[in-house]
């Protein structure tokens, strides 16, 4: 996505081998960006990139990982930016969108809260001649110029195969399983489900596994715990494994399993390699988590943004080598899709070596002994 001159400018930004790449939202110092909920210093002087993150609750990744990753990548690439967080408010999201477009950002990158507000924002960007990037979540019908994310069907596939491996390790060739899906308003949740359904199809079709319940946890720990408890009770406690679509929800499910005295006996999946998720894996409560290194997303975002700022359509096409079908319009959206990794105790060191999480944060308190046993340092 970048001309030869742009590639020279990006020599300091790390390259990566991907099916494609993903973009992530982050913050930087006061001269380039603003804290979530504030107003950016750069907008009035012609900010290059405006980024809107969705919230700080559905996953800790937005503020803890995506924000610093993008900040570092944009700083390294010499791109001015304004990163804000809508804090889960559709109204705030819309206000931030209007402000950034009004301040003259050259590229607008969003993580939508829902389809309607995301689409409205992208339509305004198009009308104003602003190039747009859907980051992490595709906005159906939004018409973003580009989509940058991980291979989200692949993410779901890792959860499905991860559950199979955990059940095999436990010697359970026959199993009752449940799904705790993500929010129906998030297109990614549907893609994750496509992935784990495909991975588990043969097991279910053969009768080895029986899907005994499926509900949405809405990306919320309490909601996920509630719906899991309902399915667990409905099946008389005969649930052998759970596909849970992220670590936040997995934490809610594990809390209910602890209350039932079954934590560690029922494999639970997750996503985001959060501190809580990694701790639950080390303590034996969670089978694994899908690790999505936001540095890869940030690298992609900065390169793509520069190409769009410079009007380098050939360079953009060279980076966005994949495509994702918009489920509403049927259009193929040029996409950069990074490859996720399934993380268990055996390969968790990678998360620390990459700087995604720190040993000090994860290996605290009761987890310290488990980290030592796992050789994590």
How would you characterize the overall build of this protein?
This protein has 377 residues and is α/β, with parallel strands linked by helices. It has helices at residues 4-9, 61-77, 90-102, 115-127, 152-169, 187-206, 221-234, 247-259, 275-282, 294-309, 313-319, 349-353, 359-362, 368-374; strands at residues 49-53, 81-85, 107-110, 131-135, 146-150, 175-181, 209-216, 241-244, 289-291, 322-325, 332-338, 341-343. It has a 7-stranded mixed beta sheet with strand order 2-1-3-4-5-11-10, with helices on both faces. Strands 7-6-8 form a 3-stranded parallel beta sheet, with helices on both faces. Strands 9-12 form a two-stranded antiparallel ribbon. A hairpin with a 6-residue loop joins β10 and β11. The longest helix has 20 residues, at 187-206. The model is unreliable at 1-44 (pLDDT under 50).
Give the ordered list of helices and strands.
HEHEHEHEEHEHEHEHHEHHEEEHHH
Give the N-terminus to C-terminus distance in angstroms: 38 Å
Strand content: 15-25%
Largest sheet descriptor: 7 strands, mixed
The number of distinct structural domains comes to: 2
The CATH topology of the largest domain corresponds to Rossmann fold
For the record, the CATH class of the largest domain is Alpha Beta
């Amino acid at each position: 996505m970048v001309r030869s001159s742009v590639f020279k400018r990006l020599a300091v930004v790390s390259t990566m081998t991907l099916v494609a790449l993903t973009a992530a939202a982050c913050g930087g110092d006061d001269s380039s960006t603003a804290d979530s909920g504030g107003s950016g210093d750069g907008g009035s002087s012609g900010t290059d990139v405006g980024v809107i993150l969705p919230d700080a609750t559905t996953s800790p990744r937005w503020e803890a990982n995506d924000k610093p990753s993008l900040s570092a990548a944009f700083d390294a690439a010499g791109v001015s930016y304004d990163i804000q967080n809508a804090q889960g408010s559709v109204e705030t999201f819309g206000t931030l969108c209007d402000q950034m477009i009004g301040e003259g950002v050259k590229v607008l990158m969003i993580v939508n809260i829902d389809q309607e507000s995301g689409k409205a924002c992208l339509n305004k960007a198009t009308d104003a001649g602003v190039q747009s990037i859907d980051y992490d979540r595709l906005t159906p019908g939004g018409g973003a110029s580009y989509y940058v994310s991980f291979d989200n069907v692949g993410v779901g596939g890792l959860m499905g195969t991860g559950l199979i491996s955990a059940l095999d390790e436990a010697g359970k060739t026959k199993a009752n399983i449940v799904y705790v899906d993500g929010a129906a308003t998030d297109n990614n949740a549907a893609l994750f489900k496509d992935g784990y359904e495909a991975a588990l199809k043969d097991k279910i079709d053969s009768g080895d596994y029986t899907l005994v319940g499926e509900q949405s946890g809405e990306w919320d720990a309490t909601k996920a715990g509630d719906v899991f408890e309902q399915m667990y009770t409905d099946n008389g406690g005969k649930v052998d494994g759970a596909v849970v679509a992220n670590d936040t929800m997995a934490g809610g499910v594990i809390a209910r399993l602890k209350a039932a005295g079954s934590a560690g006996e029922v494999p639970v999946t997750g996503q985001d390699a959060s501190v809580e998720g990694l701790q639950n894996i080390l303590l034996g409560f969670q089978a694994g988590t899908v690790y999505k290194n936001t540095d890869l997303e940030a690298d992609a975002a900065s390169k793509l943004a520069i190409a769009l700022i410079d009007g380098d359509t050939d360079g953009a096409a060279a980076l966005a080598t994949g495509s994702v079908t918009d489920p509403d319009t049927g259009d193929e959206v040029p996409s950069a899709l990074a490859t996720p990794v399934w993380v268990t105790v055996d390969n968790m060191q990678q998360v620390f070596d990459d700087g995604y999480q720190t040993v000090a944060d994860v290996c605290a308190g009761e987890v310290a002994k488990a980290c030592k046993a796992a050789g994590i340092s």
